[in-house]
Amino acid sequence: MACVALQCAPLSAATLRTATVISASTVKLSDLFADLEPGQDKVLGPAPAPGTSIQVGGGQLIAIADQYGVDWLDQSASALATITRAGRVLDKSYFADLVEKNLPDIGVGAVSVDLFDFHPITVPPNDPKPVVLSDLNWDQHSGRFSATVYRAQPTGDITQDSFMLTGAIHAARKVLVFSHALQTGAVITPADVQINDSYTGTPNAKTYANEADVDGMTLANTVLAGEPVLDRDLHRTILVHRGDPVLIAFSAPGIHLAATGRALEDGGAGQYMRALNLATAMIITGRVINSSEIEVDPGSTAIPSDSNTLRRLTASARANTRADTSLR
User: How crowded is residue 123: how many other Cβ atoms within 10 Å of its Cβ?
Assistant: First the structure.
C-alpha cells in the first residue's frame, strides 16, 4: 500500500545519461537514457556537428520520456543532459599533405606547403576520407596555389561544407645550412656549414649554396644547427680598418706595380674600398686581398685627394661604420 501511495517507479526504470559522447550522425533515445526496455530505442534526430555538443533540458527530457513511454527515475525540470559528437581535427599538416599528394607529377621532388589564413576543421573520427580536394591551381613560377575543399559528409551549413584553401608550394633546393650552433661574432669556416640538397624551408632572405661565399664572414646573430645560412645573418669580417697602412698593388700583362697607401675606409675580404696613394696623393679604389694589401683593377680611375674629397670620404666611412655597428 505504501508503495502504491508513493507511486514507486518499477525496478526496470531508466536512468538519465547526463553526459554522452557519440560517434553516429543521429541521436538515439539510448543516448539520453540508460536501461531502456528491449526494442524501446528510437532515433530522435540528427546529431550535432563533429566536435560540438547539444544540451537537452529537463522539460524536453520529460516530454521525450512521455512520448516514448520511458519510465525515468528522478524526473526533474532542472535536469540536464549533454550530448557531444566525437570529432577529429584536420590541422595544417593534414591539408599540407593532402595538397602535396594532389600535385601533378612534374618531377619537382620534395616540396613544402605553406597555407594562408588557415582554419582547422573537425570531422567524424572514423571517416577514412573526410574531405575531397578539388580544382587545384598551382602557379609554379610564384609557387602560389588555390584549391577547393569539400566535406565528404556535409553538415548542411554551406559556409562549412566547402571552403577555399590557398597557400604557396616551395620546391626543394640546394642550400647551405649551419653544421652546429654558433654565437654572434663567430667567424665562419667551411667546418661550420654544410649543404642540404633538399631544403624546403621558405627563408625571406638571400641564401647561399657555396661554402666559399661565406668563408671568413662574421655572424651578426646567434644561429642553430640546421638553419639556412642567410645573408642577413652575416657581414664581412673587417680585414683593413680606416687609417691602416696598406700595400696598393696593380697587375696587368707584363706589369706589376706596388705603392704604399693609407686606407680611407674599412674593408672586408674581397670588398672594394678606397685608399690614398701616398706617393701620388691620388685616391684609388681597390679590392681587399688581405689585412695589408689591396689590388687595383685594370681600368680603375684615380681621383685627386683634395681636402674636401678626403673630408667627405672620411665622413661617409664613419657613417657607414656607425650604421654597420647598429645592425649588429
Answer: 21
Provide the pLDDT for residue 1.
Answer: 39
Instruction: Extract the C-alpha cell encoding 21.
Output: 559522447
Number of domains in the chain: 4
Q: CA–CA separation, 102 vs 99, rounded Å?
A: 5
pTM for this one? 0.52
* Domain of 199, in residue numbers: 174-235
Residues comprising the chain, all counted: 328
* Three cell numbers written together for 181: 650552433
Angle formed at CA 315 by CA 309 and CA 317, multiple of 5 degrees: 100
- Distances in Å between the Cα of 316 and the Cα atoms of 234, 273, 309, 310, 320 are 22, 12, 11, 10, 6
> Tens of pLDDT along 126-155?
889 999 999 999 887 788 999 999 999 887
For residue range 98-133, what is the model confidence (pLDDT) as tens digits?
998 888 775 556 778 889 999 999 999 988 999 999
For the four alpha carbons of 311, 313, 316 and 318, in that order, the dihedral sign comes to negative
Distance CA 282, CA 284 (A): 6
pLDDT of residue 173: 76
Q: Are strands 234-235 and 272-277 parallel, antiparallel or unpaired?
A: unpaired
Of the three residues 171, 191, 226, the one that is the final residue of a domain is 171
Which string of b and e fits 126-162 if b means at least 16 CB within 10 Å? eeeebbeeeebebeeeebebebebebeeebeeeeeee
Angle at 262 between CA 261 and CA 265, to 5 degrees: 135
The DSSP-derived string for 178-213 is ESS-B-TTPBP-GGGEEEEEEE----SS-B---GGG
- Cell numbers of 218, please? 662574421
What CATH number has the domain bearing residue 205?
Answer: 3.90.1210.10
Q: Are residues 96 and 59 in the same domain?
A: no
Shared domain for 121 and 162, answered yes or no, is yes
Which residue among 183, 210, 235 closes a domain? 235
